[in-house]
Design a protein that fits this description.
The protein has 723 residues and is an alpha/beta fold. Helices cover 57% and strands 10% of the residues. A hairpin with a 5-residue loop joins strand 2 and strand 3 (190-197).
């Protein structure tokens, strides 16, 4: 097992790895304002370009596309204190000065009914500015392009019928309404009527006409209200007059059909009934007394109790007779005859009282009947009289209101007046060219900054060794610039002709880092791979081979990417020369397949096209024997292998390597691709020795703000290199 594998499984890191990990800064989730400002400063050129483009677009719109608009204002004031011509309350009262009334008047000014009157009065339906159907087709327009795209994607819509006159009037009214703005000056009763159109004279005429229509509209409303009130009151007064006449007729008819009724007569009847009741009570009491006396007298008579009879009779003559009877001078029969005569007299008196009581009762019934009948008639008469009086009051009130309303016709005053007529504007109010240019510059700067920050935010590649090391957890062993030269052959020639260039020094730095990755046992077999094609691993392999040969080491470069043979693009090779596949198949010996390349200064074992499974070739025992043979003959063996994410060859070859370099192209390879490549290596217990940031654009490093931080690309390294 190789030293690289032993160190990977044991978890032992090299001094370079430990130093790099110790130097790694702590992560910070906060926003680095300094970094943000540096990013904006680096992109100042693009922000400036965005501003210039926006200014050009805004200038083109302001000076070439935009139609000049003219604005003018007429002023109307609300008259909340009006003197009444007459001294009675107005049927149509004036407006108040509260905020609710002011807001109501603002809405009336912008109402569709008032704007429609303006459209009809000025014949704005014949104006192409407001009537879209009258506009001429000028060719290109944004709305036309949008409609064309919709028709292309969704299909042409069904043709719409021509609008009616009413629909056209509503459309023009909406367009005119959008050209008018109404505002109230704070803490005043003054309204500004601002009109903005494409013509100065048109704006003035519309503003003044709208103000006049508003004042006339108030007069029309009051006049119509007065007319409606007069018509209603006239009809109501006629109805009330009929009701009054009917009420009075009913009262008179009822009064004529009954006895003379008055409260005084009813009061006399009540007194008469009272006297009759008192007399009836007195008579009834006397009847009771006389009846009891007659009964007592009969009892005394039946018992021949002459003393009791004399007492009950209470008659002096009878008392004297009783004395003579007791004396025996007068017979008892005479006394009895006198007593019976007195008893008959009492009986006659009782009969007379009873007759008198019956008469009083009949008289009382008659009086009570009269009182009850006349009370009902009086109540009915009073009710009819009150109804007639109420009808008369209502009739007189409405008659008075009718006269007042009739008098007010023609003397109404508007609640507002025109305070100031609109003037003819001299210069357009829009577009404000300086404002458009300034706003365009601001929007352009915002767009440039947003694009720059979005680009930074969306960046998913690696632009610095710190980013790469932080993301992968592996030491960045080298940072190799993009070598000049349009063809691959020129890369090796450049490194040979410019041994003190920044690129050559970067390769030497990578060589040193690789050799020091394991101080106790420097790697002998070095393998280079990447995540995807085009990351510069083949160029790194050739450059490292050339650099190792400069140390007077015997170097072998093996083309392990048998599926995509590119070594021949870097240098000329002997035709029909055997290669790696021939050695593994036994068709050629190791020595016969080796080629010496002068421009590289190393021996090269080229790959060959084969129909066999390449992964099986590298897993064979012959390849393992080949690597043992190569170890015995060469100091350094470099193997260029295919990308990890494309084919499994690299993971197979890595089993025989001491060190694995993982190439990552600067500002190109995505973080996900790098992570997936390393994960696939880890799935077979392969751990890269380190990563290499390749094909770095030095101008791009400066543009992104990293040019002053890293080795061969820093400002202070200029004098050390001859590029």
């Amino acid at each position: 097992m190789s030293t690289f594998e032993n160190m990977s499984q044991m978890g032992v890191s090299s001094p370079v790895q430990r130093a790099s990990q110790a130097a790694q800064p702590l992560s910070d989730d906060g926003i680095d304002l300094g970094q943000l400002l540096r990013t904006l400063w680096r992109g100042k050129f693009w922000i400036l370009i965005s501003m210039l483009v926006a200014i050009l677009v805004g200038g083109y719109y302001a000076y070439a596309v935009a139609v000049p608009l003219y604005s003018t204002t007429s002023v109307v004031t609300l008259e909340n204190r009006q003197e009444q011509v007459v001294d009675f309350e107005s049927v149509v009262s004036g407006l108040g000065g509260d905020q609710t009334s002011i807001n109501t008047e603002v809405e009336i000014l912008r109402s569709r009914a008032l704007i429609k009157k303006l459209v009809i009065k000025l014949d704005l339906m014949s104006d192409p500015e407001f009537n879209i159907s009258l506009r001429e087709d000028t060719g290109f327009s944004v709305s036309g392009v949008i409609d064309g795209v919709k028709n292309l994607l969704l299909g042409a819509p069904d043709p719409k019928p021509d609008p009616t006159e009413e629909q056209l009037l509503e459309t023009v009214t909406t367009a005119v309404r959008s050209a008018i703005s109404i505002s109230n000056i704070r803490n005043t009763y003054v309204f500004n009527l601002r009109v903005t159109t494409e013509g100065a004279q048109k704006s003035k005429l519309m503003a003044n006409t709208l103000a006049d229509l508003y004042v006339l509209n108030q007069l029309d409303v009051k006049f119509e209200a007065t007319q409606r009130a007069t018509a209603w009151l006239s009809e109501r007064v006629a109805d009330l007059q009929v009701d009054l006449e009917n009420s009075e007729a009913r009262a008179k008819e009822f009064n004529a059909g009954t006895e003379l009724i008055s409260p005084e007569v009813l009061e006399g009847l009540n007194r008469q009934a009272k006297d009759t009741r008192e007399r009836l009570k007195t008579t009834s009491d006397r009847i009771t007394v006389v009846s009891a006396r007659i009964a007592d007298m009969q009892v005394a008579l039946d018992g021949r109790d002459r003393a009791e009879m004399a007492r009950l009779a209470n008659n002096p003559t009878l008392t004297q007779s009783l004395a003579r009877v007791e004396a025996g001078t007068t017979p008892a029969e005479l006394f009895d005859s006198q007593f019976e005569q007195i008893q008959r007299s009492e009986t006659v008196s009782l009969s007379r009282l009873q007759t008198q009581a019956a008469g009083l009762k009949q008289s009382l019934v008659t009086i009570d009947g009269q009182i009850e009948r006349q009370s009902k008639d009086l109540v009915t008469l009073q009710q009819l009289t009150r109804e007639a009086e109420a009808a008369r009051s209502i009739y007189e009130y409405f008659l008075g209101r009718l006269k007042e309303t009739s008098v007010q016709q023609g003397i109404q005053q508007a609640d507002s007046r025109v305070l100031s007529q609109a003037v003819l504007p001299d210069v357009p109010s829009a577009p404000k060219k300086s404002r458009v240019l300034a706003l365009s510059a601001i929007l352009g700067a915002i767009a440039g900054v947003a694009g720059l920050l979005l680009r930074e935010f969306m960046s998913n590649s690696f632009r610095s060794a710190q980013q790469l090391q932080s993301a992968t957890g592996f030491t960045v062993l080298g940072q190799v610039p993009k070598f000049p030269g349009r063809k691959r052959r020129g890369v090796i020639e450049y490194l040979k002709e410019k041994p003190t260039s920044a690129g050559a020094e970067a390769i030497r730095n990578l060589r040193t880092s690789v050799m020091l990755s394991n101080v106790d046992k420097p790697p002998q077999v070095i393998m280079l791979t990447s995540s995807i094609p085009g990351e510069g691993k083949t160029t790194l392999s050739l450059a490292l081979a050339q650099s190792f040969s400069g140390l007077n080491k015997k170097v072998l470069l093996i083309e392990g990417d048998l599926r995509r043979l590119v070594f021949s693009e870097y240098f000329e090779a002997e035709p029909n020369k055997k290669g790696l596949v021939s050695v593994l198949s036994g068709e050629s010996t190791f020595e016969e397949a080796i080629r010496s390349i002068d421009i590289v200064g190393t021996d090269v074992l080229l790959g060959e096209k084969t129909q066999a499974n390449v992964a099986d070739l590298f897993e064979s025992e012959r390849f393992a024997n080949l690597m043992e043979l190569a170890r015995s003959k060469y100091d350094i063996i470099l193997i260029d292998t295919p990308p990890v994410l494309v084919v499994p060859d690299a993971r197979t070859i890595a089993q025989h390597a001491d060190s694995l370099l993982f190439a990552v192209r600067w500002d190109s390879t995505s973080q996900e691709q790098v992570a997936e490549g390393i994960r696939m290596l880890a799935s077979v217990n392969i751990r890269p020795t380190g990563v290499v940031l390749s094909q770095i654009d030095m101008k791009g490093m400066k543009r992104y703000g990293y040019g002053g931080q890293y080795g061969a690309y820093s400002q202070y390294g200029r004098k050390y290199y001859v590029n």
